[in-house]
Specification:
Keywords: Membrane, Transmembrane, Transmembrane helix. The protein contains seven helices and 20 strands. The strands form four sheets. Strands 12, 13, 14, 15, 16, 17, 18, 19 and 20 form a nine-stranded antiparallel β-sheet that branches. It has a five-stranded antiparallel β-sheet with strand order 3-4-5-7-6. It has a four-stranded antiparallel β-sheet with strand order 1-2-8-9. The protein starts with a helix and ends with a strand. Helix content is 26%, strand content 34%.
Length: 333
């Protein structure tokens, strides 16, 4: 009898200990999830917000100085607390009473300023620092961590949202507020806009498009004139070919140069995809024009929309009144 009682007590104790371990593990996991939750950064002064991944939010300080909002690597900043240092990216705001959209176009060529949109009072943009933001004696790990944060900042900018005066919101992604806040010269993948001339790395694209079937890299030769030495990366997916461009003095960061769509799974911001009818195409793009390549049959030719001042184009190849291929591209001037 005594032996059975001890046995039952031992089993009961084991059950209690196992349950305790499971509960503790669950609570610990819950704490970790809470710690790594995304954070919504809201700037009430200028009326915009950004979605920050939890890990990114933990590793940066956000500092406002004049009309700039800096995102600063805490680790780098700790080495130089006397000044803003370790800037992985910044949001720039410009009062519309003093600056027009045309004024800001000069900044694009000057230091890579990227226009994000406008509210009733301000123009918005983003940029990376043009001067060195990592100490000369920094370890390789610190440099790598800083570069990672810079790339994450580029992805975070896609969540940039401007609040309207009536507290409504418009989403802005990729630099133009053309179609519901989405850059006209984009394609939609998993409800996310991937825009021409926006900076992406392979990891950014893979997160949305999956792993590419193949990848090739090319360095442009002397025949490319002023673009000689520049880098072209080609990524092939099922029903999609993406080309990325990097300046000759870079070779590490790339912006989206062209897209060739033959899959109906992807579409333009206006809802046109491979398989759309010519009637649907003309309804979506009322200003579309036939490409003057010699073909005269309206049901069997190419149609195009363009933003020539930005060298951006979308071409729709139509056969028997059906869209068979969509090409988005930037023409190198």
């Amino acid at each position: 009898m005594s032996h059975d009682l001890k046995k039952r007590s031992s089993i009961l104790l084991s059950i209690i200990l196992s349950t305790t371990v499971i509960i503790c593990a669950f609570l610990l996991g819950a704490c970790n999830v809470k710690t790594n939750q995304d954070v919504v950064y809201e700037n009430e002064k200028y009326g915009f917000s950004l979605n920050l991944p939890g890990e990114f939010a933990k590793r940066v300080d956000i500092r406002e100085d004049g009309n700039f909002i800096y995102f600063v690597d805490k680790e780098v900043q700790a080495k130089h607390p006397e000044q803003v240092f370790g800037v992985v990216g910044r949001i720039e705001t410009y009062d519309k009473k003093e600056f027009s959209r045309e004024n800001l176009k000069e900044l694009e060529d000057m230091y890579g300023f990227r226009y994000l949109g406008e509210s009733g009072s301000f123009h918005f943009g983003c940029a990376h620092a043009t001067d060195v933001q990592v100490p000369m004696d920094a370890s390789e790990k610190m440099r790598q961590n800083f570069r990672t944060l810079e790339k994450e900042f580029d992805a975070i900018v896609e969540s940039f949202t401007i609040k309207k005066a009536n507290d409504g919101e418009i989403a802005v992604a990729g630099g133009h507020q053309d179609i519901n806040g989405i850059d006209e010269y984009s394609f939609m993948a998993d409800k996310r806009a991937i825009s021409l001339k926006s900076w992406y790395n392979e990891a950014d694209l893979s997160a949305v498009l999956g792993k590419p079937i193949s990848e090739t890299n090319e360095v442009l030769g002397s025949g490319a004139d002023t673009f000689s030495g520049s880098h072209i990366k080609t990524l092939k997916y099922e029903g999609l070919v993406v080309k990325l461009f990097s300046p000759k003095d870079n070779g590490k960061e790339f912006w989206l140069m062209s897209v060739d769509l033959t899959s109906s799974k992807l579409q333009t911001p206006r809802g046109i995809t491979v398989g759309s009818t010519l009637t649907e195409l003309k309804k979506a793009y009322s200003d579309i024009k036939i490409v003057p390549d010699g073909r005269a049959d309206a049901n069997n030719c190419a149609y195009r929309v363009s933003m020539q001042e930005k060298y951006k184009y979308i071409t729709f190849e139509v056969e028997k009144g059906i869209v068979k291929e969509i090409k988005l591209f930037v023409e190198l001037p």
